């Protein structure tokens, strides 16, 4: 009975952590969406709110890291249970970094709109990559909530598209700056935002990879596992 009670308490503790992680995920997803809106419309009050929200994200990271550490010490999970806790800790870190990038976008938006965008349509420049990263983050959090490794696998390829879009944006902005030095300041701000969006895509991909790790026990980081799986499916 003691073992059964301990197991039930572990499940309860882990579910509490999972719920808070998903809450944190929803917060950073909204923070990112609002940061992109600020970049588009220049609402300085909204930008300050995005930056302030990062404090809440940071507090959640500390709270959840502490909860995971206590769970390991008290329950001493092994095998699959330990894998789940370790992957959850890594997801928490990626979510916190997404919050940092969203705050960075908001700060850059403040500088850009106070100075004036100049001749660059900065909003249109990052529109496609921002949509792609937002979709990737949303779907990665959905895969995490449902522990859907098949959906997680599909998301990894989406990050490759975001990376290509970022490289295209970088080339275009370099061309603008070379052709018209007056665009340098606005181009650099826009490039910083595009880079922050690209990093958010990377962190969302990481979350998808941790879903696969939790479900299948395979650490596919820095491998071509996703590509090989797609090739196998096509055979």
Automatic annotation (TrEMBL):
<comment type="subunit">
    <text>Homodimer.</text>
</comment>
<dbReference type="GO" id="GO:0030643">
    <property type="term" value="P:intracellular phosphate ion homeostasis"/>
</dbReference>
<feature type="domain" description="PhoU">
    <location>
        <begin position="134"/>
        <end position="211"/>
    </location>
</feature>
<keyword id="KW-0592">Phosphate transport</keyword>
<dbReference type="InterPro" id="IPR028366">
    <property type="entry name" value="PhoU"/>
</dbReference>
<keyword id="KW-0963">Cytoplasm</keyword>
<dbReference type="InterPro" id="IPR026022">
    <property type="entry name" value="PhoU_dom"/>
</dbReference>
<dbReference type="GO" id="GO:0045936">
    <property type="term" value="P:negative regulation of phosphate metabolic process"/>
</dbReference>
<protein>
    <recommendedName>
        <fullName>Phosphate-specific transport system accessory protein PhoU</fullName>
    </recommendedName>
</protein>
<keyword id="KW-0813">Transport</keyword>
<dbReference type="GO" id="GO:0005737">
    <property type="term" value="C:cytoplasm"/>
</dbReference>
<dbReference type="InterPro" id="IPR038078">
    <property type="entry name" value="PhoU-like_sf"/>
</dbReference>
<feature type="domain" description="PhoU">
    <location>
        <begin position="22"/>
        <end position="108"/>
    </location>
</feature>
<comment type="function">
    <text>Plays a role in the regulation of phosphate uptake.</text>
</comment>
<comment type="similarity">
    <text>Belongs to the PhoU family.</text>
</comment>
<dbReference type="GO" id="GO:0006817">
    <property type="term" value="P:phosphate ion transport"/>
</dbReference>
<dbReference type="Pfam" id="PF01895">
    <property type="entry name" value="PhoU"/>
</dbReference>
């Amino acid at each position: 009975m003691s073992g059964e009670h301990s197991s039930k308490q572990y499940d309860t503790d882990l579910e509490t952590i999972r719920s808070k992680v998903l809450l944190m995920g929803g917060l950073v997803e909204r923070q990112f969406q609002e940061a992109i809106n600020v970049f588009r419309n220049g609402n300085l009050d909204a930008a300050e709110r995005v930056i302030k929200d990062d404090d809440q994200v940071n507090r959640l990271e500390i709270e959840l890291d502490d909860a995971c550490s206590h769970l390991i010490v008290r329950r001493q999970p092994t095998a699959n249970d330990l894998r789940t806790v370790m992957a959850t800790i890594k997801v928490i870190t990626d979510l916190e970094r997404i919050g940092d990038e969203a705050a960075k976008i908001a700060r850059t938006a403040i500088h850009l709109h106070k100075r004036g965008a100049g001749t660059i349509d900065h909003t249109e420049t990052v529109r496609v990559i921002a949509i792609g990263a937002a979709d990737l983050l949303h779907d990665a959090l959905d895969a995490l909530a449902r522990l859907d490794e098949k959906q997680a696998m599909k998301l990894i390829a989406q990050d490759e598209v975001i990376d290509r879009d970022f490289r295209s944006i970088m080339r275009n902005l370099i061309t603008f700056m070379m052709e018209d030095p007056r665009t340098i300041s606005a181009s650099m701000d826009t490039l910083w935002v595009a880079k922050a969006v690209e990093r958010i895509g990377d962190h969302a991909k990481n979350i998808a990879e941790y879903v696969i790790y939790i479900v299948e026990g395979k650490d596919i980081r820095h491998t071509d596992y996703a590509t090989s799986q797609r090739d196998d499916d096509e055979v």
